[in-house]
Amino acid sequence: MMDNRKLIYLLVGAFLVISVVAITGIMAARGPADTGADLSAERTDDKVKKNTLTVTGTGKISVKPDVAYLEVGVRTLDKDAKKAQEENKAVMNKIMAKLNSLNIEEEDIQTSNYSIWPRYHYSDNRENLEGYEVENMIRITVRRIDSVGDVLDSVNKEGANRSYGINLGILDTDTIYKQALEKAIDEAKSKAEVMANKAGVILEKPLAVHEGNSPREIYPGGMDGRYSVVYEMDSAGRVPIAAGQLDIEAHVTIVYGVR
Questions:
Q1: Sign of the dihedral defined by the CA atoms of residues 74, 79, 81, 86, in that order
Q2: pLDDT at 9 over 60
Q3: What class does CATH assign to 51-64+173-233+243-258?
Q4: Position with higher pLDDT, 53 vs 2
Q5: 67-169 adopts what CATH topology?
């Protein structure tokens, strides 16, 4: 009986030893998977943070505008909608003929808006139809800035009675912008050299170069990189135009490796 108990105890003990060894072996083979990965990632992140220098640069080029965009048109009113449209068309035809005589190309004249709507006035709590308004607006591209005043004078004399101002711009913005971008990169490099020198580190090759928040910025700003000029007639009946300058800006961000 005693021999049987001893045999059982020996078998159970041997089984426990084998189980512990097997479990230990499996854990050793797997390794500290989760904990090790997190620590490695943290070390990598820390290394990246400690070994980079990020700088930004801005480049600006000031240029004179070389193109103007005019928004002018005709508004007519008549109790008869058809007559209002016919009157509007007659005036607009005169304006188009005048623009042609000023050597404005057909491709530089574009209809920007044509609308017709009823106009009412109120009296004694009643709504009365006053007539129908027709508005026809065109967008004129003037490629000689010094002729803008003459163009405006001419269309006004032919009956144009609506205007949304003048937008001045630059035809070849890409070339100017690339020049501004070069200046932005030069400024960023200069700033990086100063910072690295003061921080006691050595600059390595850039790890990343990013164009700034927006592809281009032109100031004073307006739609499509132009700025608006509200004009008034002078005492001689001419429209004074001061083209001024436009500032085209570029922005870059450079990430340098350091050691």
A1: negative
A2: no
A3: alpha beta
A4: 53
A5: Alpha-Beta Plaits (3.30.70)
Q: Sketch the domain layout of the chain as residue ranges.
A: 2-49, 51-64+173-233+243-258, 67-169
Exposed / middle / buried, residue 131 (Cβ in 10 Å: 0-12, 13-18, 19+): middle
pLDDT of 222 > 90? The answer is: no
Q: How many CB atoms lie within 10 A of CB 254?
A: 20
Residue 44 has pLDDT above 50, yes or no: no
Q: Is the pLDDT of residue 239 over 90?
A: no
What pLDDT sits at residue 2? 46
Helices 81-101/148-157 angle, 10° precision: 140
Would the CATH topology of 51-64+173-233+243-258 be identical to that of 67-169? no
CA distances from 25 to 12, 14, 106 (A): 20, 17, 86
